[in-house]
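Homework help board

Subject: predicted structure for assignment chain

Our instructor gave us this sequence and asked us to write out the predicted structure in token form, then describe one feature. I got the tokens but I'm not sure how to describe them. Can anyone check?
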Amino acid sequence: MGTTQLEAVPEPKYWHLRTVLTEALDSEFAVGEILPNERDLAARFGVARATLRQALEQLELEGRLQRRRGVGTTVAPPRVGVAVGTEQHAWPGAAGDVWQAADCVLAVPPATVAAALETGVDTPVLTVRRSRVSHGQPVAAELLYVPEASVPDPSGIDAPSGAARARAVLRALQRLELESRDSAVELGSARADDAKELDRLPGAPVLVVTTRFLADGRTAALSVATYRADTCRLTFGDAGGVEIHQDPERAAS
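My token output:
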């Protein structure tokens, strides 16, 4: 693979470079192999490092590359299929749930979560932290927000903190009759706390799945699950429809 001249290419330089790099990944590099540093790659292809970074970021978004702390950029393994929403009428923590409870605290949620839960902006809610592992690697981190109104008998939550308290909150939720649940998926960037838990760099591409659980005509819990976009391919069950909402401001632009 020699130096490629990109000046006369009509498409964006980074996109053409992404195509060239894809061919190189298929022919020259093995899964897990570390790529040369940015300076060497930029010199090899005769491009600016900014153009190279754009191409690398695009390949990371597509799941072809991984950026790992203290290691560098490596060739990613094939994406792992992760089932989402296959049990449409099950509470978090029900039998067969693949998530692992880690902790539970009482804290004020983000304003967007408070609005969805219809709680006051300064009202603390039970916040359950869980994680998901597939094929031995962390693939997702979740924050499950539960208003205290959804747990009318707090005496059943006797553990002060940790995984035991998280599991107790999940058991309390399961006493409610789940009416329905709905999910939305969007592309985002990993925050510092999510990045650390998922062994990614801050700003790495992630898929954010927000799920509302409804009971007694209200949102009884809200899940915000962050999946690694480089290794996960989300799949939905037969009952899990996907809606596309168009931003009216963008449509008008």
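Reply (TA_rk): Your tokens look well-formed. For the description, you could write something like this. The helical segments are 13-28, 38-45, 49-61, 111-117, 162-173, 192-197, 248-252. That's the kind of observation they're looking for.
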